[in-house]
Amino acid sequence: MNIKIPTFLHEFFGERQNIFQLTVIFLFGVIFTSLLFIYYSNTFSEVALWRNIFAFLLIFDIFSGCIANFTKATSNYYANNKKKQIIFILIHFHLIIVGFLLGTSIWAVTLVWIYTIICAFVIISIRGRNQTFAAGLLLSIGIGGTPMLEMEVYMLIVSMLFMIKVLYSFSVNHYQNRI
After folding, report:
1. Cα(36)–Cα(131) distance, rounded to whole angstroms?
2. Domain boundaries, the chain
3. Which of 36, 50, 81, 169 has the fewest CB atoms within 10 Å of its CB?
4. What tens digit of pLDDT does each residue of 89-131 get?
5. pLDDT digit string, tens, across residues 134-155
6. Helices in 69-129 by DSSP H: which ranges?
């Protein structure tokens, strides 16, 4: 069953979204972000509360967006508007902000962010079926290379899901609904 999404949430979920998928997106974000903060609670306990709250919200957005961008509603919403695609990519500083908030390895996080953003622009410039192949290749290179950077394990998890979110689940038009 699909529901109409309020206009101010179109950038997150598209114009009409399947209620089951919407529930899964939310649960995935809440559960995995909470698990990350519980499992690495010793690390997060050393950070100011306001930084933890802000980081939690940004990580929740990364994790939820990773799944939301795979939905037909979100994919089609952006596939038909190049300007919105470019803006979406340009505003995604989440990873760098999370690294700063949690006092983590900013250099490694910045490298992952730069790689992800460049690859996202490359992928949205490709049309047709080659887009999925190119995105898969670039994602595989990124996921293979990211663990070689020196960063905390929790940031490695966040970095890889950020890469999946922006480089693959957002940048690929999974449903090939182009105008």
Report:
1. 32
2. 2-170
3. 50
4. 999 999 999 999 999 989 999 999 999 999 999 999 998 889 9
5. 999 999 999 999 999 999 999 9
6. 72-79, 82-90, 94-101, 106-125
CB 108 within 8 A of CB 139: no
Q: Nearest 5°: phi and psi at 60? A: -55, -45
Question: Could you give the CA distance from residue 13 to residue 4 in angstroms, rounded to a whole number?
Answer: 10
Assigned token pair, 162: 């950020």
Distant-in-sequence, close-in-space partners of 88: CB < 8 Å, separation ≥ 6: 11, 78, 170
CA distances from 116 to 35, 37, 141 (A): 25, 24, 11
Question: Which residue bears the tokens 């690390």?
Answer: 43
User: Which stretches within 3-93 are classed as H helix?
Assistant: 10-13, 19-39, 41-44, 49-68, 72-79, 82-90
Show Cβ contacts of residue 145 under 8 Å, excluding neighbours closer than 6 positions: 115
- Residue 28 in contact with residue 67, Cβ under 8 Å? yes
- What whole-number distance in Å separates Cα of residue 117 and Cα of residue 163? 9
pTM of the model: 0.92
